[in-house]
Amino acid sequence: MLSRARRLHPALRRLLLPTTPTPSRGPPLPPHHPAAVQTSKPSPIFFRRHLCSPPPPPTPPPASQPPAVVSPDLPAASANSICPGCGIAMQSSDPALPGFFSRPSPKSADYHARLAPITADDTRISASLKSGHLREGLDPSRGAEPAAAAGAEAEAAEDKGDGKVLVCARCHSLRHYGRVKHPDAERLLPDFDFVAAVGPRLASPSGARSLVLLLADAADFDGSFPRAVARLVAAAGEAHGKDWKHGAPANLPRALLVVTKLDLLPTPSLSPDDVHAWAHARARAGAGADLRLAGVHLVSAARGWGVRDLLDHVRELTGARGNVWAVGARNVGKSTLLNAIARCSGVAGRPTLTEAPVPGTTLDVIKVDGVLGAQGKLFDTPGLLHGHQLTSRLTSEEMKLVQVRKEMRPRTYRIKTGQSIHIGGLVRLDVEDLTVGSIYVTVWASPLVPLHMGKTENAATMIKEHFGLQLQPPIGQERVKELGKWVRKQFKVSGSSWDTNSKDIAIAGLGWFGIGLKGEAVLGLWTYDGVDVISRISLVHERASIFEEAGFTVSQIVSQANSMTNKLKGTKKTSKKKESKANAAPITAPEAAESSSTVDA
User: Fold this and answer.
1) How much is the pTM?
2) Cis geometry, peptide bond prior to residue 473 (ω within 30 degrees of 0)
3) Lowest mean pLDDT among 120-134, 190-204, 458-472, 550-564
4) Whole-number Å distance between alpha carbons of 495 and 535
């Protein structure tokens, strides 16, 4: 009995331990021949079965499996498909080129099936698995119930539009990791010119009604406002308006100003009417007095502020067959806003546009279906590259420091003539002349960017020793020269109250200085050549209740730079002491010879 129990079952031998026949010169021996039994090698693996259980019946030969069927969850894509996240043509041949995607792996039709749960203390199932058979009494239909339920839920999710969407590898990396998978492929991406691509449609007197959404970032209005597109709309409206007055058919393109990321401003201290009037005035200042806006909307896609009102106004202006174009600078929030509009309109399924805090997420024109009805069309366009913004020159790591992602907080200084304020290694504001004793300067920028206030006469030392270290961005002293030439612009500012800010000096892509004074001042602003700097009416009139002190602001960047500088100084002192002992030369005042210039704050 024991030898019979230890003997490997013939069916399991055929399935698990196939043996190759050894060639022989004579005819093959029968299986029961003693010589054939002696030539077979014993197997090192033994399968035990319970002594009381009867021997299992012979295992039938395995049935042929049906061919695999590709799952319908992910749509089939080809080289001519367009990525629904960014609009680029997809390809599956070269991962280093833009638009690469991985084809879904083939799956069987019942790949949603789930096995019945097996507990660790179920001894009957354990014994049945050892014998190679399911235990008696287990109804396969009961185990299929969870699978059927899961399949029904999946089908219901697909009906609701919650199924997966196949996007390119770039969009997948941006959605899940917030970064570009292949940075070297970014320079191969095509450039988009809205004036050349969409301009002829706006200039044509015939065709469907056109509406342009001019998007501007609330934290960088003048830097992100699409001036060229606004001037195009103004010129087309002026030309078509003359034809319309004479009775000729004319397509009058309309424009809506949409101020995005309203949640970044200190909203409790702002009046919506004041911001509305301020944004309307700044738009006409950037595009010219000929720009006629059909309305101004203040929205926050992250919190849903003003999205419903914007959608209702867009539907009213476009009608049943209109075309809507969302235009704005890079990272202004076009895709995020259109996804919020799609959710607000009740479109089935998840919005497909890729959202990421990376400039240039959208690469081509994408049509958003189902928002404006059956014949209305809503288009998302690639972000416009504004060379006058500081962000166009920064790396991805430097962009993370400059981008404003939370509600802005004021940082206020009280400074006198001959003092300066640095915003990182990007901007310096000098107080050159005053008719009063001092002025209030409030910095509105990302809290991750360190500040410094000190004497103007030490500005050269700051550039040489602290740019790229304590004052970031740029990250690294070698990046200072790569950003361009350091140039100066002069501003004459006047105010009539100490309590509020009278003027703003805005730096495109960074933020602005709020100036509060009762008198006149001559200010000099230094930044890199080509960066747009303007003087405007103050947007936020408040300032901080507690003023900043002279020197560097407390930040992690400054602390790490100071620690690194102290380590370098200690290494230099140690090496010089070793050299002096080896040369046996007397040293006079080694600290004075090695100490660096101290910034007088």
Assistant:
1) 0.68
2) yes
3) 120-134
4) 13
